[in-house]
Amino acid sequence: MWEPAKRRAVYEDLYDLPENVVGEIIGGELVTAPRPSRKHAVAASRMGYEIGPTFDFGRGGGPGGWVIILEPEVAFGENILVPDLAGWKKERFPTDEPHNWISVAPDWICEVLSPATARRDRADKMPIYARHEVRHLWLLDPDLQTLEVFVLEAGRWVLAGVHAGSAKVRAEPFQQLELDLGVLWLE
Hints:
The protein is α+β, with helices and mostly antiparallel strands. It has helices at residues 38-56, 118-131, and strands at residues 21-26, 29-34, 66-70, 74-76, 79-81, 85-89, 108-112, 136-141, 146-153, 156-164, 168-169, 179-180.
């Protein structure tokens, strides 16, 4: 039986979504997920609080030189993705563009995993990030209280470390900061 071809999603389709969902365009398809859970939002916010002051603003003697953003819209070719956190070295960050999405791939991404998004983050988004040469990817799981650190080598993700609980972590590209994972979890 003949079926009409599906229309490829376009950026304007995101405007029609209810406020309580996050929309992305992956492989030409509009994909939605509910707004993050409390555990997810707390872990993402606290990660931003830990990294941002040191690397975005250079506070506390930190190196600065980065732009760190919570939930930015980023164009990866035809895909519009919304990582939980993303960071660009300042010299690579486009400060003025004629559209809402950011057209330059980040240098670092942190995805906070949840039951609704973990499969998509791993199976759909990780390969897109690799194709667009994001150098560093962190997967943060507030349910398991783990941080997986990946580095892109020759176009493939290499697991650089797995950390759990309240471990103290120094991880690329922010190894100047000792990150206490224990502060990220809602308890």
